Amino acid sequence: MRRVVVVGASLAAVHAIEGLRDHGYAGEIVLIGAEPHLPYDRPPLSKEALHQGPEVDKVHLRAPEWYADAGVELRLGRRATALDPARRIVVLDDGTPEEYDGMVLATGSTPKTLSTLGDVGPVNILRTVDDAVALHGQLIPGRHLVVLGAGFIGLEVAATASEMGLDVSVVELAPVPLTRVLGDEVGQWFRTHQEAHGVQLHCGSVLDGIDPGAGGSKIRLHNGTVLSADLVVAGVGVTPATGWLEGSGVRLADGVVCDKSLRTSVPGVVAAGDVTRWYNALFDEEMRVEQWTNAVEQGRHAAASLLGADEAYTPVPYFWSDQFNAKMRFVGRANAAEQVHVERMDDTSMVALFGRDGVLRGALCVNAARRLAQYSRAIRDQVPWGDVVEP
Amino acid sequence: MSMKVIVDLQACQGYACCMMEAPAVFDLDESAGKAILLQETPTDDLRAQVDSAARVCPARAITVENG
Ligand SMILES: Cc1cc2nc3c(=O)[nH]c(=O)nc-3n(C[C@H](O)[C@H](O)[C@H](O)COP(=O)(O)OP(=O)(O)OC[C@H]3O[C@@H](n4cnc5c(N)ncnc54)[C@H](O)[C@@H]3O)c2cc1C
Ligand code: SF4
């Protein structure tokens, strides 16, 4: 292999490049990224950086000189628009064809929008550092912010804005926030935690429409409630950024479909990060993980597979979220849990376990992170549910 | 070649990822929410674990120096 092209210049890409070099690949590397910035870290953008005022050079993943040192040719501010596997060419938005012998797809996620609601006026989303700069500029104490969607990013924005002195309401379709992923009892804890800090949650609320106006927007809920907002943020989920691969021959199904070692259906092309759907044998499940740690480990693993390794990628996923003083850390999977056991719960901390098929599959700790290592090992060892949960 | 591990406790946010990767080298002080370095100069057999701990630390608080 003489020329590897990496598409998408973010977390998975940086770790794929580092992995390629660490595994001895000495050929060319070209990095194509739609954003004009060098790869940067996203988690701070809803947390401390949003509070303090985001600056891209403070969240850079690697120093600017790292790319030259690693022998990476940068094509930033350029979007890949088509892939031709027969000719081994990727075409950029300025028409330039880039030849490749090997390719890493790392295009991540794009936020969903409220386009089905028609003209909703200015609604902020939060995915990029530019989004965060624009949002920070509007977070002025005393203003009323309405967050649409009580997912992790929505709840983090709510907490940060509330700490900055805004008056914050969150609108959520589900009866309890995060219930789809974490179950009612744990979701309810987060609701109480947010409310204790002054955030108003409107759960079980269907959004009927948003009327933009000069002095702010009116948010109409189906139950008749109308909320006035000086600014609105939508955190209604993300979709994998695969539009440009339609018709290329790369198999897609809510993400880029890969085998156990992260190889796509097209020879010489691997995938890593948010965009990747693969079979994780440890959980006997096809999964796509939209989390930071996965992008790091998957980037590195995909690099090894591209260079010929055949090892299965079987991580125990790890995820965190910070809301006010609650530092939540999660290992494993909670989706489709058959059992949820709350081991400990008080105002400031919580430990909850998630089981399925008779084994421990996930563990959540709020302000109790030390337990994670033990649970992470138990999940990897597929320890029976009854051995972890004391009756 | 030996290694020296440094944890920037100012940057550390208590994510505990280091402890999951290299339990012989890192622990966590729960009340402080900070990592505890159990060994500053781990033996070479722990290198892979320590390298992955540094890689997956979300706060990039871990540096590994080669001596
Ligand atoms: C505000 C925020 C807070 C978060 N907080 C947490 C957290 O607390 N914990 C956690 O675990 N995770 C968190 N995440 C998720 C985490 O940041 C992602 O999982 C991670 O960024 C995924 O990395 P990636 O490299 O796969 O993709 P991304 O970071 O999504 O990057 C993909 C890049 O590819 C580019 N791209 C897309 N299409 C093309 C194309 N056709 N051509 C060229 N370039 C393209 C995009 O512009 C983008 O720059 C957060 C995310 C956000 C946005
Ligand atoms: S992973 Fe990093 S931030 Fe987390 S406890 Fe370890 S050193 Fe601290």
Can you describe what's shown?
- The complex is a heterodimer of chains A (391) and B (67).
- Helix content of chain A is 23%, strand content 30%.
- Chain A is an alpha/beta fold and 391 residues long.
- Chain A has 3 domains: 3-110 and 238-306, FAD/NAD(P)-binding domain, CATH 3.50.50; 115-234, 3-Layer(bba) Sandwich (FAD/NAD(P)-binding domain), CATH 3.50.50.60; 325-388, Enolase-like, domain 1 (2-Layer Sandwich).
- A 5-stranded parallel beta sheet of chain A has the order 3-2-1-7-18.
- In chain A, strand 1, helix 1 (11-22) and strand 2 (28-33) form a beta-alpha-beta unit.
- The longest helix of chain A has 15 residues, at 292-306.
- In chain B, strands 1-4 form a two-stranded antiparallel ribbon.
- Helices cover 22% and strands 27% of the residues of chain B.
- Chain B has one domain (3-66): Alpha-Beta Plaits.
- The longest helix of chain B is centred in the C-terminal third of the chain and has 10 residues, at 47-56.
- Chain B is an alpha+beta fold and 67 residues long.
- The interface between A and B is medium-sized, with 19 and 15 residues.
- Bound molecules: flavin-adenine dinucleotide (FAD) and iron/sulfur cluster.
- Flavin-adenine dinucleotide binds next to helix 1, strand 2, helix 8 and strand 21 of chain A.
Could you name the key traits of this structure?
heterodimer; A: about 400 residues; alpha/beta; FAD/NAD(P)-binding domain; Enolase-like, domain 1; 3 domains; five-stranded parallel beta sheet; 10 helices; about 25% helix; B: about 70 residues; alpha+beta; Alpha-Beta Plaits; two-stranded antiparallel ribbon; binds flavin-adenine dinucleotide; binds iron/sulfur cluster
State the gist of this model.
The complex is a heterodimer of chains A (391) and B (67). Chain A has 391 residues and is of the alpha/beta class.
Please report the two chains with the greatest interface, counting residues with C-beta closer than 8 angstroms to the partner's C-beta.
Answer: A-B, 19 and 15 residues
Q: What fraction of the residues of chain B are assigned to beta strands by DSSP?
A: 25-35%
Largest sheet of chain B: 2 strands, antiparallel
H/E element order of chain B? EHEEHE
The averaged pLDDT of chain A comes out at: 96
Number of strands of chain B: 4
CATH topology of the largest domain in chain A, which one?
Answer: FAD/NAD(P)-binding domain
Low-confidence stretches of chain B: none
Tell me the radius of gyration of chain B. 11 Å
Strand order of the largest sheet of chain A: 3-2-1-7-18
How helical, in percent, are the residues of chain A? 10-25%
Low-confidence stretches of chain A: none
